[in-house]
């Protein structure tokens, strides 16, 4: 059509006759979305299959049928987090504008006056993720689009390999490689494994602690040998990770990092406890072994110096522990500026909503380094439809608006929370004289 003829035809056409295309709808919009408020907030506490201790948060809005869900899971204080949400915070949140996420986040933090409380951060995370979920549903976009859009096609993940012998570890690392994983964490006999003196063995105080005992000198000898074995068996291509789980004293941490250098680690995780982060500077001065830290960080004063002084390579905070997507994306942005990368903590006791939140940030962040994987049995995929899938070493999120994950609430309530045992759990490690080792 000639341009003038087209313009004349367009001018003559009544507005009502315009096709109701999405483009026309965008053109006709003169304002943003109508104001919505938080109508109801409550925790959903569940132990599906008796295996997990999860706390989810459901935020119901004033628009019928529109709600969001978030993760507030904290295996160590599940009931405390649930009570904080139900008794203290829900009354503070009800009636607020669902779109003002950052404002609600800070208002909640300042309301508690003392910052970075772990229980508060978990509760806030539940609300924060649910609000991003709602915002995505309102916009008709997955959360990663709200964060700027995809910068990668899927989320590369690392798997956890373990074994009783070095050959068994190598076999299990290889099994991940065969499935498509390129990054694998290798442990031998769990955290501290390789450095454990068997129950009843060794020279011990009479009548004292008789259980499995951690000895750091033994560990620092054993782990480089494991990595050497893996390189000989599997070659140089596999990207190896090892988790020290904060067990070492500072000088031994420096020593281990040095000894790991020939094996070209992807990173060594939590080589120091959070109380000793200044020692990362010492490690940096003597070795190029890459370092990852952060899964027990709750306070910006812990991750700030690590990132801004560039004394770690990967920050590993758990999204639900730092307070949700809002603070996590700020951490990722900070990392981008300083050349540090992200490796959000997953695995273990984490839940699928927290994993989905991590994956949305991963998809949209140029500071991404790697994602710890998490896989659940079929019953969890049924209970939480939209749980991300990892068929080949990459995580794929559901492309639905929001976080793309939901919870069958009535089903979840059929699994009441497994009561805490009161006994020492896997986080309690002791030395041969019965003294505690930092977990
Ligand atoms: Mg770890």
Explained architecture:
With 439 residues, this protein is α/β, with parallel strands linked by helices. The protein folds into 2 domains: 3-142, Enolase-like, N-terminal domain (Enolase-like, domain 1, 2-Layer Sandwich); 155-400, Enolase-like C-terminal domain (TIM Barrel, Alpha-Beta Barrel). 39% of the residues lie in helices and 14% in strands. The strands form 4 sheets. Strands 4, 5, 8, 9, 10, 11, 12, 13 and 14 form a 9-stranded mixed beta sheet that branches. The protein has a 3-stranded antiparallel beta sheet with strand order 1-2-3. It has a two-stranded antiparallel sheet with strand order 6-7. α7 (166-179) packs across α8. The longest helix has 22 residues, at 118-139. 45% of the residues are buried. The protein binds magnesium ion (MG). Magnesium ion (MG) is lined by residues 243, 245, 269-270, 295.
Assembly state here? single chain
Biggest sheet layout? 9 strands, mixed
The molecules bound to the chains, other than polymers, are: magnesium ion
Q: What general form does the structure show?
A: globular
Number of strands: 16
| Broad CATH class of the largest domain | Alpha Beta
Q: Give helix % range.
A: 25-40%
Q: Which homologous superfamily in CATH is the superfamily of the largest domain?
A: Enolase-like C-terminal domain
Judging by the overall fold, what is the CATH architecture of the largest domain? Alpha-Beta Barrel
Structural class: alpha/beta
- Radius of gyration equals 25 Å
CATH topology group of the largest domain: TIM Barrel
Number of helices: 16
> Please, how many domains?
2
The chain-level mean pLDDT equals 94
Name the poorly predicted regions. Answer: 9-16
Strand fraction equals: 5-15%
Report how far the terminal alpha carbons are from each other: 74 Å
